[in-house]
UniProtKB/TrEMBL annotation, chains A, B, C:
Keyword Membrane appears in the UniProt entry: yes
Keyword list, A-Z: Membrane, Transmembrane, Transmembrane helix
SUPFAM superfamilies according to UniProt: DsrEFH-like (SSF75169)
PANTHER family the record matches: CONSERVED WITHIN P. AEROPHILUM, PEROXIREDOXIN FAMILY PROTEIN
Chain ranges passing through the membrane: 21-44, 72-91
InterPro entries cross-referenced by the UniProt entry: DsrE2-like, DsrEFH-like
Name of the protein in question: NADH dehydrogenase
Domain of life: Bacteria
Length: 159, 159, 159
């Protein structure tokens, strides 16, 4: 598939939604695609050196609850302090037990495969991110620059 | 539109977000598109024989509340047990009164129109889904297999 | 980039997710793209004359909290009445202090650049929206009409 291009706009900053851009990005790169990911809005969290991503069951009744937790904890209790940390720990443990790579590993795979990662400059300014908190080897740019690549891509996804 | 292809990645597992992949998938198929939907993450819920999908108003202030409910129930109370079930029942009733097809019906339309549905094998393993809990006639595969179709598609959407 | 086309399906109705369709739509139009945005589901809120959009931290641990708010307010307290209004006011104030255009301004830019905005007729019926509550100059249509444009587009995004 020489010459194929994939453009991804990564907008979410939670543990669960961190997987799609890095899984699809590294998969496409492995298939020979030229890949660029534009990290904007909450997605900028995925470029931090120390990510500290969390997952929340709040407002997502589509999340399968391990061990029948939904039977024991009604919606209200998913809001108690500590619940988010507990769900995050459980998801990480589940991923590990199933042999699924961590977000850090998947991001590393993307870097090794020369996936171009671009931090949205407007979001960096908006959320007062410090460039030194972000990983090395990324670029900073705007939507219009990214559009040049996206307009020539074979697959363009907003995640 | 002979020869046109649409690729959908369905990642959400709630009642409201179950509509877009099945509505757009069946619409495209009716227009002559070849359609493939890749169900991954929470989207795998949409392939269950018994879906039991729910909708939550939590964290979604964009949801129009029927009968001025937002005036009567401030945010906190959308978290009380039973609220999710109530909202789900109200949305289903609303859809029915407006003559909109159910998710089961729309999924059936997709099946009749030969929309190819693929369950993400990694997610099946991760969430410990039993293949016999899923509807018949689907395939199991990975992201790289799906990419072959997506890379040739005219429309590729991540939902 | 004469002749390039961008198709956007806008499905979210919150303050934060109102930015992507209008920013990318106006950016693409400025680059010479022909742009169409199909507003459906909660996205229909973005076509209201009086938008009154809100943002919620609930269920989104990826949202950077200003002033270390997440240290002071654990998850439960993000659900107290008034929190949503407070977060909304803070985000608007933040955007303003950074010189970022308001949603109203970005929507105006799209209109001036002849971005075609289409309200999903099914959603208008479903949520009982009054056409007179929506801005002037828009069209009403269905998914199949929009598909004709989307199928010819260079970039098609589901937001």
């Amino acid at each position: 598939m020489a010459g194929k291009k994939m453009a991804i706009i990564a907008t979410k900053g939670t543990l669960d939604w961190a997987y799609p851009p890095f899984i699809l990005g590294s998969t496409a790169a492995a298939l020979g695609y030229e890949v660029q990911i534009f990290f904007t809005f909450y997605g900028l969290q995925l470029l931090k050196k120390k990510m500290g991503l969390k997952v929340s069951p709040l407002g997502n009744p589509g999340m399968p609850m391990p061990m029948g937790m939904d039977k024991w904890f009604p919606v209200l209790f998913t809001a108690i302090p500590g619940m988010e940390a507990m769900m995050t720990a459980m998801m990480k443990s589940k991923m590990k037990s199933k042999g699924i790579a961590t977000i850090e590993e998947l991001r590393g795979l993307c870097q090794e495969a020369d996936v171009k990662m671009i931090a949205c400059q407007m979001t960096v300014d908006l959320f007062d991110f410090s460039p030194q908190d972000l990983i090395d080897g990324i670029e900073f740019g705007g939507a219009s620059t990214f559009m040049a690549f996206a307009g020539e891509s074979d697959i363009c996804l907003f995640m």
